[in-house]
Task: inverse folding
């Protein structure tokens, strides 16, 4: 590892005397929307032709290493409108700690999940605890503007990893929920 890469890694990831993560991580980190076409016969019967599932991830890191992770999922129809009843939001309150291990340019941080829940915004009673959620956060010494987040759900399905970039603007959003689809017999 070159001396410059070592210095950048040390400055970005070293613990401060107070025991908190470096302020270089503070701020808002966002993914680009992950869009998956829903094109099977079943998907088309439920969501309509040319619908797609969209997932976005956002993490806000505050001083002291406290962080909020938000995963938003929805289905949009062919016109880009959010389908009623398709939205879910997973939110987790985290504490980011010091580097646990480093491999090449990748440094994995210690992450503690303090609280996690899944909400269905279209259902006022649709909030569920996500005990057992696991989150991994990785930084890169060769790209200080990128983080990698891995999310493992306790039910064992739906796990994913996503690259996040430091950002100040919210990603483009779809039109408000105005359509309702029903399965065709």
Result:
């Amino acid at each position: 590892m070159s001396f410059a890469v070592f210095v950048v890694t040390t400055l970005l990831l070293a613990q401060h005397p107070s025991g908190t993560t470096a302020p270089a991580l503070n701020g808002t980190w966002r993914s680009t929307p992950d869009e998956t076409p829903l094109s099977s016969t079943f998907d088309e019967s439920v969501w309509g032709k040319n619908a797609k599932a969209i997932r976005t991830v956002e993490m806000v890191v505050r001083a002291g290493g406290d962080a909020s992770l938000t995963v938003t999922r929805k289905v949009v129809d062919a016109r880009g409108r959010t389908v009623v009843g398709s939205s879910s939001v997973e939110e987790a309150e985290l504490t980011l700690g010091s580097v646990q291990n480093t491999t090449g340019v990748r440094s994995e941080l210690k992450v503690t999940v303090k609280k996690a829940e899944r909400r269905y915004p279209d259902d006022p009673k649709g909030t569920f605890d996500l005990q057992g959620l696991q989150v991994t956060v990785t930084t890169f010494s060769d790209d200080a503007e990128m983080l990698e987040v891995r999310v493992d759900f306790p039910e064992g399905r739906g796990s994913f990893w996503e690259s996040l970039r430091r950002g100040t603007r919210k990603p483009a959003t779809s039109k408000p929920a105005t359509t309702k689809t029903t399965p065709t017999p």
The radius of gyration is 19 Å. The helical segments are 3-13, 41-47. Residues 13 and 22 are 6 Å apart (CA to CA). The domain at 3-167 is CATH 2.40.160 (Porin).
